[in-house]
Amino acid sequence: AAAQNKVTINAGDGKTIINKHIYGHFAEHLGRCIYDGFYVGETNKTIPNKNGVRLDVVDALKKMKIPNLRWPGGCFADTYHWKDGIGPKAKRPSIVNTWWGGVTENNSFGTHDFLNMCELLGTEPYLAGNVGSGTVQDLTEWVQYVNFEKNSPMSNLRQQNGRATPWNVKYWGVGNEAWGCGGNMKPEYYANIYRQYSTFMNPQVGKEKIFRIASGASSDDFNWTETLMKNIPVNMVEGVAMHHYSTFGWDPGVKGSATDFTEAQYFRTMQQALKMDEYIQKHSAIMDKYDPKKRVALVVDEWGSWYEVEPGTNPGFLYQQNTMRDAILAGATLNIFHKHAERVRMANLAQAINVLQAVILTKGSQLILTPTYHVLEMYNVHQDATLLPIDIKSDDYEVGKDKLPAVSASASRDKAGKVHVSLVNLNPNKSQEVTVSLKGLTAKAVTGRILTSAKVQDHNTFESPAKVKPVAFNGTKLNGDELTVTLPAVSVVVLEM
Ligand code: AHR
């Protein structure tokens, strides 16, 4: 391949930190994410667990360095009454999970279960509060229950339920998708509701101020962000959310299979994924008008691919396989988040286990890591590192009359001084030669890891769990301050120098 691709790393210009929280995950009471995913029950004797939480899951997510976990939804959050999920499990009421399959939710996994699990994972909890069908009192009491140390009805109740000290939860969502499943509200109405709820959540209850996240726009709904920013003073909100899924549409049957897809479908998925860049730019420009000092974070608290469910599985459970297409999507999306690190300071891939673009799939006692898992694990070197601005000139990847850039890249310097460069080849038909110019950087040696496979459809299965996994990469040539990298077709690479 001719050297059409050029990445210039301006190593002297780094000033923005890539917040580790953009590597966050999401666990909803949906399908087999919590039950049969994270949680198999305290009485389970066949799957090793602590208080019912699978230890192989804990192990894998710790290795991946999961920085935060959002719970209990999603749409479920605006149906969830947290008091149903505390106290003796035998006494907890069963409810119907109205959004996801109409199944019975027995509330055996509740606030203590989740927050103790986050401690086990070494991750920060992000609680999504119920605004759509809850009350101001419910949500303010939840904050007090988990965060207040001294004597009060809620902290006393927490202690009666076995937890002496508060968990000090920092991240709080004030409703979810308020424009849809969270209550079908208009933006003006939600902005007012937000102001009311967030006032009584009282930032002074716990050890440190909480971080309140307003329910955000879907993809290109810029009016939603504009209305929120116009009507909510910047000292009342720490984050404004946004959701963007890579999907072919919301009508039944249009999403296509997760594993059996054509090149045209692969291309469309990438088009959808790369729109993230434009959407973030436009939402950020609106936020800049009202918040030029960038005090409020843009929180992309749901992102990822959304296909048809696996044949034979419950359509309400959103269980999909995960291929190299998803790995490429994840690598390119994380590179986009890095680029906007000044404003995008938190994000959550949907969802962690057995739902949508999962990093882990389980079947009985078996567990597999998906290609997406491996990308998040390879990329974790960027967490809390300094973003090094890049200029990129890329070859085109063309399908029919449409084209996309073939190469996506990002670079950062970690606290130990190591520079990492992540590169994605979006063109599944052609290897890419990339010239990386290291401005202001003397590299002595380059090492790397690659995730690659013959086809974009390739994936791990319970029969063949390690078909796709990272290996050492030696496709680089260093010549002074110029590095030549040969990216195979269908690959995601992370270099270290
Ligand atoms: O992640 C699945 C669902 O997608 C979430 O519950 C909802 O917020 C979004 O529509």
TrEMBL record:
Enzyme class: hydrolase
Pfam families: Alpha-L-AF_C, ASD1_dom
Cited InterPro entries: Alpha-L-AF_C, ASD1_cat, GH, Glyco_hydro_b
Keywords: Carbohydrate metabolism, Glycosidase, Hydrolase, Signal
SMART domains in the record: Alpha-L-AF_C (SM00813)
Swiss-Prot/TrEMBL catalytic activity: Hydrolysis of terminal non-reducing alpha-L-arabinofuranoside residues in alpha-L-arabinosides
UniProt record similarity statement: Belongs to the glycosyl hydrolase 51 family.
Identification of the protein by name: non-reducing end alpha-L-arabinofuranosidase
Organism of origin: Fibrivirga algicola
